[in-house]
Amino acid sequence: MDCPFCKIVIENTERIIRETERTFTVLSKPRLMPGHLLVIPKKHVERFSELSKEERNELFDEIALLEQKILIGLAPGCDISQHYRPFIPNSRFKVSHLHIHVRPRSLDDDLYQKVQIFERDVFQEPNQEEFEKFKKLFGN
Description:
Blueprint: H1 4-11, E1 16-19, E2 23-27, E3 37-41, H2 53-73, E4 77-81, E5 100-105, H3 110-114, H4 128-138
Antiparallel strand pairs: 1-2, 2-3, 3-5, 4-5
């Protein structure tokens, strides 16, 4: 397997800035802003559903701790996101190993000024047909 995240664990590289029994955290490379972290399960999986409940709990506990540290000492806001996009080939910008982005945010950061300020042009109100479709798909 040629997974760059698995190599970090196997080689125990100096990129690791935090580590738990089942996770490790590195600075994103490339990054969107200073302090952009990746929280990565040590087990090679691509989706949350492939982790055990214990592994998911530890992953989310670590994310919550890092969010708190960011809010106390780095920035007034924090974005947390995960992307599963098997239709995009692996590259410097995409790795097929589950990882969670934890990004310090502020209103004047580059990401907001260059990209997210335009989000309002993309958002749309869901219609009734859409509501029914997704209620049927995701409801109990």
